[in-house]
Amino acid sequence: MKRVAAVLLVATSAHAGGLQRPNAISARGVGMGGAWCAWADDATAIYFNPGALDTVAPHVLVGGELVVGPRSYTPVAADGTRGPAQEATVIAPVPVLGIVGRFSYDERPSRVTLGLGVWNTFGGKISYEPTGMPALDATQDILIEVNAAAAVHVSDKLSVGGALRVGIGMFATEATMNPFDADLSASGVGLGMTWGALVRPTDTVRVGVTWRSPLRVTTKGSGLVEFGGPAERHDIEHRQNWPQQVLLGLGWQAASRLKLATQVDWSQWSQIEEISVTFPNGVLPDQIYPEYWDDSWAVRAGGEYALSPTLSVRAGAYFDTKAVPDATIERQYTDSNKIGLAAGVGVRVNEWRFDAAIDGVIPGTRTVPNTTNEAAGVGALVNKAPGDYRGSLLTLELAAAREF
Question: What is the C-alpha separation between 335 and 332, in angstroms, rounded?
Fold first, then answer.
C-alpha cells in the first residue's frame, strides 16, 4: 500500500528536516533569515518566543505566505543507468492569524500579556503524475496549530512566557500498486507546549531562548483500497510525530537605526524511527516503514535597518542541515543541506504596520548512490530510492498589523 510520507512544503519553516519550512510564519522574521527569537515583536512571538510577548504592543495580525517548491528526482539503477526525471512543484498558500492583548488597571498596563495565533508549522503536500508503476502518487501530512499564550513581565531585564499548542493533523495518500492501489485520508488532534524567555542584560542586548515540546497526533480516518478485486473501504490510523525543538537567539541594537541578530535552532527529527499506517479492523496488514532520521541544526543571522521612522529594510541568511539519511530518503521529501537568503521591508502608517519578505533556498542537487551491489543482499543497507534529488524553495510573505 501506499507508503506514508511527511512532506516538505518548503521547509521548515517550510524548514528543518525537509518537513518544516526554513523560515515560516512571520513576514518580519523571514526578512531577517528566521533569526527572530530575540527580536520577535508581533503576534508570531507566540511561536518564536512567548517570553517576547512582553515587549509586543496590543494588535491584530493578518498575514500569509506563498510557498513555491520545484523539485525533481532522477532514479539511478545498480549499473549506473539513470531513468527519466520525475518532477513536481509545491505551490501552497499558508495563512497566518494572530492577536495580542494586555489588560490594564487604573490606566496602568498589566504585567501579563496574552496572545492567540493560528498557523501551519510543519508538513505539506505534494503530488506526481501517475506513471502506471508502483509508486506514491500523492502525499499529505500537515500540522495546523492553534496557540494560546501568556507572558509575564518579571522585571525590566526578564520576561517569561508559555503557550499551549493545539495541533490539528491532516493526512492523505494516494498509491498505485504500492503494493496495492489506495486512496486514504485521516485527521486528528494533539497537544504540545512552548516555553520561552527574553533576557535584556543591557539596553542594547537581548537573549532569547525557546523550547517547543514534541507534538504527536494520532489521525484516524478511512479510504478505499483495491487489492485484487473491487475497491473496499477500510478504517486507518496514522501517527504524526513532530519534533522537539530548542532555539537560542542573540539580538544587538548596534546603533539607533540598526538591529542585528543571530540564532541557532535544534530539531529532534531522530524521534522519527518509522512511519506507519495501521488498519484497526485487522483485515489488512499494518504498513510500517523504517526511517531512522537524524536531528537537524540551523544557524541563522540577520538584521534590520530603519531608513526612516516609517520605513525599514531587512536581510538575512541561514544554513539548515538535512535530517533524512540516504538509506530512507524518497522523492516526497527531497531533503538536503540548505543555504537560504532572505530580504524584507516594513512600512508603518500611524497604527498600521505592513511587512513583506522573500526567502529563497539556493538550488542544489543531492546524489544518493545505488548500494544494491555493495549491500550483498542485506536489505537494511540498501538505499531505498537512489538517484539525484534536486530542489529549491521560494517563500513570499505578506502581513498587516493594526495596533489598538
Answer: 9
What is the distance between the alpha carbons of residues 70 and 89, in angstroms, rounded to a whole number? Answer: 4
| Whether 123 contacts 92, CB under 8 Å | no
Residues in contact with 106: Cβ distance below 8 Å, sequence separation at least 6, in sequence order? none
Q: In this predicted structure, what is the pLDDT of residue 380?
A: 55
Number of C-beta neighbours around residue 89 at 10 A: 13
Distance from the Cα of residue 37 to its chain's centroid: 16
Judged on CB neighbours under 10 Å (0-12, 13-18, 19+), 133 is exposed
Cell of 190: 494533539
Residue with cell 524584507: 344
Which residue has 515583536 as its cell numbers? 41
What residue has cell string 489506495? 182
What would the pLDDT profile of 346-369 be if each residue is shown by its tens digit?
A: 999 999 999 999 999 999 999 999
Q: Calculate the CA dihedral of residues 109, 114, 116, 121 and round it to 10 degrees.
A: 120
Find how far residue 290's CA is from the centre of its chain.
22
Which residues share a beta bridge with 196? 161, 210
Amino acid at 132: G
**pLDDT at position 217:** 96
Distance CA 121, CA 94 (A): 10
What type of residue is 107? Answer: E
Dihedral of alpha carbons 370, 371, 376, 377, sign:
negative
- Record the cell numbers describing residue 223, joined without a space: 479510504
Average pLDDT per run of 10 along the chain, which is 404 residues long? 29 35 78 96 97 97 92 92 91 92 86 96 85 79 95 97 97 80 93 98 98 97 86 92 96 98 96 88 82 94 98 97 91 87 97 96 93 65 90 93 96
Angle at alpha carbon of residue 152, lines to 59 and 116, rounded to 5°: 40
Which residues face 192 on adjacent strands?
A: 165
User: Quick one: pLDDT at residue 135?
Assistant: 75
The answer to whether residues 344 and 356 touch, using CB atoms and an 8 Å cutoff, is yes
309 CB-contact burial (10 Å; exposed 0-12 / middle 13-18 / buried 19+): exposed
Report the C-alpha gap between 253 and 303 in whole angstroms: 10
Query: From CA 68, how far away is CA 279, in angstroms rounded?
Result: 34
Sign of the Cα pseudo-torsion (336, 196, 343, 120, in order): positive
- Give bridge partners of residue 361 from the DSSP assignment: 340, 393
